[in-house]
Design goal:
Blueprint (H helix, E strand, L loop, with lengths): L16 H16 L9 E6 L5 H12 L3 E4 L13 H11 L2 E5 L3 H10 L4 E3 L7 H15 L6 E5 L4 H13 L2 E5 L8 H10 L6 E4 L2 H5 L4 E4 L11 H8 L6 H5 L6 E4 L11 H4 L6 H20 L4
Helix pairs in contact: 1-5, 1-12, 2-12, 3-4, 5-6, 5-12, 6-7
């Protein structure tokens, strides 16, 4: 993975199909213990949004690689007092080897990456969640032994997860169907970008019909109906999104061996029912664990560990 050394990951579209495949292979080797690269590097976590899985998985992944982690709490740094992004980026560049940022605006992430020479990782923005989708693809590959030709159906809000699923599935040759209410579709520019980078014969569909989207699908995927920063809209969204719930009826339309994924945290009884998330088709906990393995592969590649 020498070609990734020193690069940023701001979007899954920053990667080629071959690079995604190589990252997933490396993640599987790291998970199995087949490879145990070690480093003496420092990862900074600059999170403007709350986090459980992303924070812990990045921290454990870096520790297991032999590195150190600094949690840059935005409430106790000068960021909270309005220090310009470009100033913070240039200072952190002098201290750290790599930086993972979880924030609201994609533009803020891109500004950090512009002013910092070290690799910058998108740990979630309102536009994309690339690290989550690397873990998702690793989970699907573990379950089916392949990715190309499978179909993933996402139901719910056309949010950052939906955006990154469009791009990630396109890159690995998975068909992807996004079913959302009319006013909550993914960004048209992301859909078009996914179509532009998709492998041949890959099907990319955006629809308002969740049942049609779920038919024959190998993966049923959902996320919360109101993302961070949209909490005030949560109650008003429930009746709009109710037809897009991941429940037994929707799952019955999918392939008999279909798996269920959710990036968490989950609101049982809203976007997913308890019997589905706790059922035999659920791979949600494997998916959550794989955040650590996928991000370990990403950190090792961007830092050039093992070269």
């Amino acid at each position: 993975m020498a070609e990734l050394k020193g690069r940023d990951l701001l979007s899954l579209a920053d990667l080629t199909s071959e690079e995604v495949t190589a990252l997933l292979q490396l993640a599987a080797q790291l998970k199995s213990g087949q490879l145990k690269p070690q480093c003496n590097k420092v990862l900074g976590l600059l999170f403007y949004k709350a986090s459980t899985r992303t924070r812990v998985s990045f921290t454990v992944a870096m520790y297991q690689l032999g590195g150190q982690v600094i949690d840059l709490n935005t409430t106790t740094t000068q960021v909270s007092r309005g220090e310009p992004v470009e100033d913070t980026a240039r200072v952190l560049d002098r201290y750290l080897d790599i930086l993972s940022i979880r924030t609201f605006e994609q533009q803020q992430l891109e500004t950090f990456a512009h002013y910092a020479k070290i690799p910058v990782i998108n740990a979630l923005t309102d536009r994309e969640h690339p690290c989550q989708i690397l873990a998702d693809l690793l989970t699907v590959e573990e379950c089916f032994g392949k990715l190309k030709g499978l179909t993933l159906t996402y139901v719910g809000d056309g949010n950052n997860v939906a955006h990154s699923l469009l791009l990630g599935c396109a890159l690995v040759g998975m068909n992807v169907k996004i079913a959302t209410p009319a006013d909550f579709k993914p960004l048209t520019e992301i859909v078009e970008q996914a179509k532009a980078i998709a492998l041949p014969e890959t099907e990319i569909i955006v629809t308002e019909d969740p049942e049609a989207a779920a038919k024959g699908s190998h993966v049923i995927y959902t996320d919360v109906w109101a993302s961070m920063g949209q909490e005030s809209e949560a109650d008003s969204r429930i009746p709009i999104f109710q037809p897009y719930q991941a429940n037994e009826q929707l799952l019955s339309l999918a392939d008999p061996e279909a798996i269920v994924l959710h990036c968490l945290p989950a609101h049982r009884g809203e976007e997913i029912t308890t019997d589905v998330i706790e059922g035999s088709h659920s791979k949600v906990w494997d998916q959550a664990e794989n955040r650590m393995h996928a991000q370990k592969a990403l950190l090792a590649s961007l830092l050039g560990i093992g070269d």
